[in-house]
Amino acid sequence: MLKAKGIHKSYGKLHVLKGVDLEINKSEIVSIVGSSGAGKSTLLHILGTLDQPDSGEVFMNGTSLFSLKGDQLAKFRNEQIGFIFQFHNLLPEFTALENIQIPAFIQGKKPDHIHKRAQELAELLGISHRLEHKPNSLSGGEQQRVAVARALINNPAVVFADEPSGNLDTANARLLHELFFTLRKELGQAFVIVTHNEELAEMADRKVIMQDGKIL
Ligand SMILES: Nc1ncnc2c1ncn2[C@@H]1O[C@H](COP(=O)(O)OP(=O)(O)OP(=O)(O)O)[C@@H](O)[C@H]1O
Ligand SMILES: [Mg+2]
Question: Do 27 and 201 form a contact (C-beta atoms < 8 A)?
């Protein structure tokens, strides 16, 4: 489904990605591990089209993503890709429900439809009783589950997560990890998860090890 070929990326003189090839199948859960500075976040951002490679290509179902024009790429990203960050990046002025719905409003779906979908996801994630609260009155685990719901609201084909449980205690981390597998079963998304959590890395269908800008 998603295919990266010969990805190179440098920041100034620092050659961060040195020819990365990676393929992600539909509904597959892949973990990416490796030491700090290996290039994991850089790769994830490029796979998720948040950043451009210096050379190499990323294909989604045969379409070369970086050949898309700005607004086409933005549309593609909004429709096909979800992102979960280590620090959830929720908007503090908006309620949990509003945060979840924002990507769907950007897509221009009907408010009724969006609201129904947000409620369903909240139910699935066990946060439906917290939806009227703003992020700062939610626990870390709840905030992260709101971020997961936001990543899923447009039914993306693939969700990228960068150390999603890095900021959670063991119990909440485990809960979140189990959720990824439940979600895949219920909704069929692929998940690409960068993690330092050994347990999560091993739970994945496939573990990819990055070292010094390359996949081993
Ligand atoms: N915007 C940037 N400008 C300059 N250097 C950068 C930038 N982003 C990342 N780097 C450098 O690129 C290298 C790879 O960074 P990256 O964030 O991909 O590592 P990582 O594998 O995600 O590490 P960690 O496990 O610590 O999150 C690091 O040396 C980092 O300092
Ligand atoms: Mg990182």
Answer: no
Q: What's the topology of domain 26-54+66-215?
A: Rossmann fold (3.40.50)
**Nearest CA among 186, 187, 190, 188 for reference residue 204:** 190
Residues bordering ligand 2, an ion, CB closer than 5 Å: 41
| pLDDT for 167 beyond 90 | no
- The type of residue at 129 is H
C-alpha separations of 56 from 3, 8, 59, 130 in Å: 11, 6, 10, 43
34 or 140, which is more confident? 34
How far is 201 from 205, CA to CA, in rounded Å?
A: 9
For ligand 1, the distance from its centroid to the CA atom of residue 16, given in whole angstroms, is 7
Residue range 40-49, pLDDT digits in tens: 999 999 999 9
Cα separations in angstroms, 143 against 53, 122, 130, 177: 31, 12, 10, 15
pLDDT the model gives residue 85:
87
Nearest CA, atom 8, ligand 1: 42
**To test ligand 1's pocket by mutation, which of 9, 13, 14 has the most ligand atoms within 8 angstroms of CB?**
14
Domain ranges for the chain: 26-54+66-215
CA distance 193 to 105: 26
User: 56-102: per-residue pLDDT in tens?
Assistant: 999 999 999 999 998 999 999 999 999 998 887 899 999 999 999 99
